[in-house]
Design a protein that fits this description.
Elements (H helix, E strand, L loop, with lengths): L1 H18 L27 E4 L1 E4 L6 E9 L2 E2 L11 E3 L2 E9 L4 E11 L4 E6 L12 E6 L10 E2 L2 E3 L14
Parallel strand pairs: 1-8
Antiparallel strand pairs: 1-5, 2-3, 3-4, 3-6, 6-7, 7-11, 8-9, 9-10
Length: about 170
Amino acid sequence: MANTSKSFIGFTASLVLYFSGINTLYAKIPDELLYQPPKNVQSTQLATLVGFQKLNALQLIKARIYLTYINDKATLNRSHDWNKVYEISPGLTDIRLVSDTPNYFTSGRLKFTAKASHHYQVKNNQADIKFNKEPLLFWVEDLDTGEVVTPKQELLGITVPSSVSFVPVIISK
């Protein structure tokens, strides 16, 4: 009985904290560690960078890439932020990315030289792979020219086991 009371009190306290707006008890990340777009610069002097999502022909594999760092500054992105557009300064750009397609998690780093007024996108070939023996490649593409501005390269990835769900079947006689 005592354990039940403690559990109930703990659950009730959690609900009160959640609904009172104290559900984000995370540490505050200093602004100097977060990516900030260039300030006091005309948009024509900047480039843009965005993640990627593509479905394969059967709509089963969602190849999604999102940016986690730009020039060693955190973006705090998650998978659903793949289409967030970032303004970047022209010049050498170092990005870290994550691809979290179901059953396969990849992260890595790509570097490229951005040009003013150009639009860039990180891409991969995951939705186009026909056989498991084909390598998973990542690159940055200039959307204005169609030019691949980084070498297509394999990044480290791990296979994530899919969860198996068992559904009970009741057979009546």
